[in-house]
Specification:
alpha+beta; two-stranded antiparallel sheet; 20% strand; binds iron/sulfur cluster
Length: 148
C-alpha cells in the first residue's frame, strides 16, 4: 500500500504540513475560512518533530497488523480495503486504549468535549494527502515501498 514517508534531509520545520492537515479536514477546505471563520477547527493529524537542525513530519504508519485495531474496545478502528487504519467517530467512546497501545504514539486525543481520537486517515478520497501535496520541499512523499 501507499504510505507517507518523511525525507528529513529536506524538512525545514515550517509546519505547513500541520496547517494543511487542518485545512484538509475542515468543512470548507479553504485556508482562510478554516482559520478565520470556522469555529470547530479540526486538530492536525501530523506532527512535526524537531531537535536542533533535525526536523521531520510524523503521522500514523497504517501498520500491516495494527495493534490499535485489535485493542479497540468498540470496533471503532478498522483497516479499509486500501490498508488505511480509519476511525469511525460514531463508535469511539474516548477510552484512549488505542493511544496507550500504539507503539509510535501516532494517535492523539481530540477536542476534550467530544472525547474522540484524532489520527491520520491518509486524506481518504483525495488523490494525495494534503500534507504531502502542500509541503514546499517534498519533504514528505506518498508512495509504495513494499513491506515495512
Ligand atoms: S511542510 Fe514539509 S518542510 Fe515544512 S515541516 Fe512539514 S514536512 Fe517539513
Ligand atoms: S495524510 Fe492527511 S490526515 Fe494524514 S497527516 Fe497528512 S494531511 Fe493529515
Amino acid at each position: 500500500m501507499k504510505r507517507i514517508y518523511a525525507r528529513e534531509e529536506y524538512c525545514v520545520g515550517c509546519r505547513l504540513c500541520e496547517i494543511f492537515c487542518v485545512v484538509g479536514h475542515s468543512k470548507s477546505k479553504d485556508i482562510i475560512k478554516t482559520y478565520k471563520k470556522e469555529e470547530d477547527r479540526p486538530a492536525p493529524r501530523v506532527v512535526v518533530w524537531e531537535k536542533g537542525p533535525l526536523s521531520f513530519a510524523f503521522q500514523c504508519r497504517h501498520c500491516d497488523q495494527p495493534v490499535c485495531v485489535e485493542a479497540c474496545i468498540t470496533g471503532a478502528l478498522s483497516k479499509n480495503e486500501e490498508g488505511a487504519v480509519l476511525c469511525n467517530e460514531d463508535k469511539c467512546v474516548g477510552c484512549w486504549t488505542c493511544i496507550t497501545v500504539c507503539p509510535f504514539g501516532a494517535i492523539k486525543r481530540g477536542d476534550s468535549e467530544k472525547k474522540k481520537i484524532v489520527k491520520c486517515d491518509l486524506c481518504s478520497g483525495e488523490s494525495e494527502p494534503f500534507c504531502v501535496s502542500h509541503c514546499p520541499n517534498r519533504a514528505i512523499v506518498f508512495e509504495e515501498r513494499g513491506v515495512e
